[in-house]
Amino acid sequence: MPLQLFKLLLLLLLLLFKCLKAESPQCFHFTWIGPYENKTNIENESCDSRVGDFNEIPCEMPLVVTANDTVPDVKALWKNETLNRENYLCHMSPGLSCVKYSYIFKGGIQNVTYMCAKVNSSNGCYLQTHSTGMQVEACVCTSKLGLMPCNGSLSTQSQQVLGFAIALLSVFMIVK
Fold first, then answer.
1. Is the pLDDT of residue 168 over 50?
2. Which of 1, 15, 26, 171 is the most exposed, having the fewest neighbouring CB atoms within 10 Å of its CB?
3. Domain limits at 126?
4. Which residues of 150-159 are buried (b: 16+ CB within 10 A; e: fewer)?
């Protein structure tokens, strides 16, 4: 009888832990590998095979491809109740931030990694342009409990354009 009581207590503790873990903010956690011709082969790919010796390039499993080779719609992923979203999320535990790390070449996004990471900067986006023309954008944010992970949001540049458009619209409405 004591063994059954121990098992029941252990099960209750595991359920409690799972509930507590769900009470932390979340970040998206995956790598969209960009345009990819042989989409059925993605299951045989790994971060090690994709990145190789370029250790400075972030990559997080699972690897994701999209049917039309466009950046994944994370809002649709967040709202999709039939998909096991937990495969694409990590818990933003103390000391971690949500990060969206994008490689951009000639205005086109080549790949994006979403992750939980320890960073030495505050919320915002940071852009670095290499001599090859490749741009690397890292956006850092802090998610809120119960809301969609923040690392699926617009980049700083997009937010600035949107903010400018809203300001112009407001001025137009006041003048009219």
1. no
2. 1
3. 24-175
4. bbbbebeeee
> Please, are residues 143 and 149 in contact by the beta-carbon 8 Å criterion?
yes
Q: Can you list the positions of beta strands (E) in 118-156?
A: 124-129, 135-141
Tokens (6 digits) for 49: 């095979």
The answer to whether residue 11 is domain-embedded is no
Write the pLDDT tens digit of every residue in 77-133.
999 888 888 899 999 999 999 999 999 999 999 999 999 999 887 789 999 999 999
- Is there a domain that residue 107 lies in? yes
> Is residue 15 assigned to a domain?
no
Determine contact, residues 135/123, Cβ cutoff 8 Å: no
Nearest to 33 by CA among 84, 71, 77, 75: 71
Structure tokens belonging to residue 164 = 């400018």
Q: Are strands 89-91 and 26-28 parallel, antiparallel or unpaired?
A: antiparallel
Instruction: Give every CB contact of residue 99 below 8 A, 6+ residues apart in sequence.
Output: 27, 58, 113, 114, 115, 116, 117, 119, 138, 139, 140, 141, 151
Digit-coded pLDDT (tens) for 42-79: 888 899 888 776 667 899 999 999 989 999 999 999 99
Q: Is residue 19 part of a domain?
A: no
> pTM of the full predicted structure?
0.72
Whether the link from the prior residue into 25 is cis, omega within 30° of 0, is no
